[in-house]
Each structure stands twice: as C-alpha cells, then as structure tokens.
Amino acid sequence: MGESSVVECGSWQQHHTVSLLAEPHQDCPSNCQDPFTWKLPPSLALHVFSFLDPVSLGRCTAVCKAWRMLASDPRLWRRLCLRPDWQLASPAARHRQMISCRTDDGLMDWKKAFADRYRLHRNWLRGNCNVRTFHGHTQGVFCVQFDDTRIVSGSSDKTIKVRRRHYAAAQVLPVSVQVWNIRTNSPWSVMTLVGHSGTVRCLHLQGNRLVSGSSDCTIKAMLSMQFDFALINVPEPHLVWDLSTQHTWSSIACKVTMVGHSHTVRCLQVDEDKVVSGSYDHTLKVWDLRTGLCRETLVGHEGAVLCLQFDTTKIVSGSGDKTIKVWKEGRCAVTLNGHEDAVTCLQFDSCRIISGSLDRTIKFWSQETGACLSTLDWMKSEGHTGVIRCLQADGWRIVSGGDDKTLKVTLDPGSTFYWQHCGQEPTEMKVYHIINTW
Amino acid sequence: MVIARLQSKDGDIFIIDVDVAKRSNTLKLAIEMSKIDLDDDVIPIENITSNVLKPIIDWLTYHKDDEPSEPIKILKAKPYYISNWDKEFLKMDLKLLYEIMNAAHFLDIKDLVDLGCKHIANIIKISSHEELTEIFEFEATPILLTELEQIENM
C-alpha cells in the first residue's frame, strides 16, 4: 500500500503513519533478502528506483536477487511506459502491445512492454533497418502509406495496385495505386486499383477505406472488407471505391468519385464521414464521404494547397504562397508567415504545428499565438541541404525526407527524451542519418 | 517568532521556528491537532536520535522559504538535479542518510525524502556493478544480462 503511493506520486501524505519503528520487512516472507541492506523500507527503496533512468534500472535488475525483484516492479516500468517520449506512435500499435505483453494471469508485463519500446528506439537512433524492395509500378511513386499489414502506393502510372503472389504476372495498368502485403516476402503487389486518368498524387488509408486524389482533378474512395481501403482521385471528380480482396479481383470497386476541384488534388485526409482535400486550384474542399458531394470550399490561399491536416476543431493547410493557414468553422482563423518558400508538409499536435518547406527549413509554430517558436536548418542544426518533401513527428522525434536524398531523424527538442540523450544544453539539435542515399 | 521545542530520543531539546517545524506534515498535524502549548510543552519525537534530528532541522531551516514542490513537475524537468547546498548536506555516511530518510519519511517531509532518493539514484547511476556491491554491501551474485542490457549490447 505504502509502496504504490510513493511510486504513483499520489497520496503520499496519508502514509506518514508508516513509522520507522516498523521493521522494514515485517510483511515479507521469512526468506526475503533485505534489498539494500539499507534499513530502508521497500516503499522508499522503490521510490529511489523511481528516480532512475531505464538503463540504470535495467542494470539494477542484474545486481542481486533482491534488487532484481524490486527493480522489476511493474509499477516502475509502467510509469516509464506512460511517459510521453516512450509512447508508441499509433493507437493500433499500443493496442497490439497491450495484447502481446499480457501475462498468463491477464496482467500487463510492463517491463517487457518497455523493453520492446526501448529496442524500437534504439533501432531508430542507430539506423538499424532491413531493406526490402517492392516491384510493380512502372513510373514514379508519388505517395505511400502503410499499416501493419499493407503498403499502399500511388504512382504516375495511374493505377493503385494490390497484388498477391500468384498474380505476379498481372498486367501493368495505366494509372495505379498499388497495395502490397507487408507480412509476406513477396515483392509483388496484391492489388492494383485503376480508375484515375492522371497521376495519383495523394492517398489516405484509414481502416477499411482508401481515398486517393489525382491530377485528373478527382478524388476516389474505396472500401474493402478484408483489406479495408478506399481510394479517392483528385482534381475534378472524386471517386470512392468499394474493394474486397477475398482472393479475387472482382469485388474491387470505386465507391464514390468526387468532382469539383479545377486542378490536381495535391493532398487529402479522411475521417469517418468526410474528406478534406487541397488542390493546385488554391482551394480546400470538404466532401461528404458517403454522397461525394462538396460540403464546403475554403478560399484564401494565394497559391496551390500542398499539405493539410485536420481534427475535430480545425483544418491546418500549407501552401505555395509560403503561408500556413488555420481554418476554423469555414474561416481562416490564423495565417502563419515565416517560411521563405512554399510549405510542402506539416503536422500539428496539441500545441504546436511543425512544417517543412522548399526553403529547406523545418519550423515549429505555436498554435495559440501563431508565432514561430524555432527553426531547424542545415547551417545551425544539421538540417536538410535540399528541399524538404515530407515529415512526420510523434512524441520524441521528427522524421523528414528531402531532395538531398536523405531521411533525417531529429530528436524533438521539446521532449524529455531529448534532454536525457543530449545532456543539459538545449542549444544543439542532434540529427541521426538513417539512410544516406536512396 | 513562535518557537517549538522538539525533544529527541536522547532527550536533547531543539528550539526551532514553528513555521519551520510545520514543513513536516507530521509535526504540523501534531501541533495543530493536539493543542500543544508551544510556550511550555516540548514535542517528543521518541524514535529519532539527536544525530539524525540535527541535520533534518538544519535542512528544514535552510529550505524554509522554498515553495512546496510539485513532485511530478520536478521529476519531469530535472530528474537528477541537486543544488549545491544540498550536495554539501548530502556529504555524509550512507548509513546516516538512510536514517535521515527514514526519519524524514516518518516526519513526512516529502522534499527531503525525494532528495535522499535522488542522491542514491545518482550513486547507482554512476557506479559499476562492483562498486554497487561495495557501496550497498550485498553479497555478490552472478550477473544475468537483463533485457535492456542485451539490447544495449546488440
């Protein structure tokens, strides 16, 4: 009881009645070894361990039996797992780990869970990776998304492809999105989705829905029972596809095509009932996923809309006019100025917006004030020397890809992980090169 | 200045500012709940000896103007930071430190307990396996590589 209150940093005060007159091990079995020969009650010993970093804590489990027991306490590891910088990136991954780390008696093995996360971090920081090559597209790949089981990619060969191994000889289609099964070793896609008449510029896979946007001005959405995805084609009409992959190709179908943009659909995001798309025609449109009708058009950017993200309260978009705009209730609420060239990619979390640009910098913005908090460039902080094309961020790192043929993993200066790994001085940003050439 | 008289196990009496004493939640409760007449009565602390109580009072007196800390915030911001004064304070035998921590736990002085724990954690952090065995005086047991270490060595 006392132990848990200390570790949880909770109602510590209630337990001041734990007198030091009480013997430290009065509740222990007779064969208990005194953890520290410390004359410290286990609750305090546990409190000491709660100040340790994961590696030291891991070391403590190898010192002696008593320490091993104490340092393996699930509460210590749970606390580490719950810290923002050790979170897994997606809810799906978290859920999967919850299941895989369950012990026989139904409890969560937090130590194992943490070890898994630790291994993942190390691989990222050391650049450990396996390279697998997937074949199928005949022309450049413009967009890609993956989850645990599949990779979906869109290309200027104008198809979306999903292939299985025994279809290895499948025909090459004119405009494609391809889907590969990530779990098999087959380099061939299991499915090819055709329908767009122009380059597939963007796609979003969410659950059983795949939506894709294309330079034919349309968005297409598809649904699939097994593979679940929907596809939307962008510049003029938007299409939604219904797709079931039960060993046949016959059930793949475009569900909805959304038509309305007057130029290439460059970016889009989908949720349960709507699609938000940005286009070279300078506008953003909000579409009803079921009917394919345009609900709303957001006008304000003076250049092509290149990237966007939305949540329940706002839409954030980046544009060729060098600005980022935050849209609330159909109106532009804030405009962020600061980039010296087009904004190519962005992501926001609860308080910040992170954006990458043709000016080769990554900038951090405050959502509240719209002020630029900091800038990552190649001169000061080993940033990209080429145009930045894409980025993604989570609790502890930012991964960005650029025309300098590198992918860079940058530790987020706002995270506690950064502090632990790079010492006390926040003046320097550490960058890890994962891949030097593509 | 209102004063409180604390009597240690050995019978020594320590006279301190009552506000200082109240930084210990246990003493605060005792003073406020039991209607002790501060002018006449001594507060007996029967399980803490003078050599332990003295440094605790020194520490309380030095830190009397500190803002009460929010534990979670401190942990997040500077998990290993210890001020210079505290570093001097901690230059003592570990045995005595354990006694002080136990006493601070009893007196419910959270910041002092945290300080002690942090100090020991720092020692653990910088010590090798052999040093740990020596410092904490336990019998050497065969080292099993832990999960984390196996990853470290990968």
TrEMBL record, chain A:
Q: Which UniProt keywords apply?
A: Repeat, Ubl conjugation pathway, WD repeat
Tagged with keyword Repeat: yes
Q: Where is the F-box domain?
A: 34-80
Q: Where are the WD repeats?
A: 134-162, 258-297, 298-328, 336-375
Keyword Repeat present in the record's keywords: the answer is: yes
- The protein here is known as F-box domain-containing protein
Tell me which species this is from: Cordylochernes scorpioides
UniProtKB/TrEMBL annotation, chain B:
Instruction: State the UniProt keywords alphabetically.
Output: Ubl conjugation pathway
Superkingdom, natural source: Eukaryota
All copies of the SKP1 component dimerisation domain together span: 110-138
Q: Which CDD domains match?
A: BTB_POZ_SKP1 (cd18322)
Spell out the InterPro entries in the cross-references.
SKP1, SKP1-like, SKP1-like_dim_sf, SKP1/BTB/POZ_sf, Skp1_comp_dimer, Skp1_comp_POZ
- Pfam families in UniProt: Skp1 (PF01466), Skp1_POZ (PF03931)
Its UniProt pathway annotation is: Protein modification; protein ubiquitination
Gene3D superfamilies hit by this protein? Potassium Channel Kv1.1, Chain A
Residues of the SKP1 component POZ domain: 5-65
Q: Tell me which family the UniProt entry assigns to this protein.
A: Belongs to the SKP1 family.
* UniProt name for this protein: SKP1
Q: What is the lineage of its organism?
A: Eukaryota, Metazoa, Ecdysozoa, Arthropoda, Chelicerata
